[in-house]
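sorry for the late reply, my laptop died twice this morning and i had to redo everyting from scratch. anyway the thing you sent over, i finally got around to it. pasting the sequence first so we're on the same page, its 46 residues, then the predicted structure underneath. double check i copied it right bc i was rushing
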Amino acid sequence: MEKFIQKICNDLVEQYKQDKNVLGILLFGSAARNKFDKYSDIDMSY
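ok and here's the structure:
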């Protein structure tokens, strides 16, 4: 996984880990499959 994608994921975990209403964070789409390009967005669900 690219470092900037990993940083975004880590930042999201830090932001939501204290929220008892959030059970998990899921990264999916091209970023999760390491198939992204400069036009890709980040797909996530929480």
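The first strand starts at residue 26 and ends at 28.
thats about all i looked at so far, will dig more tmrw
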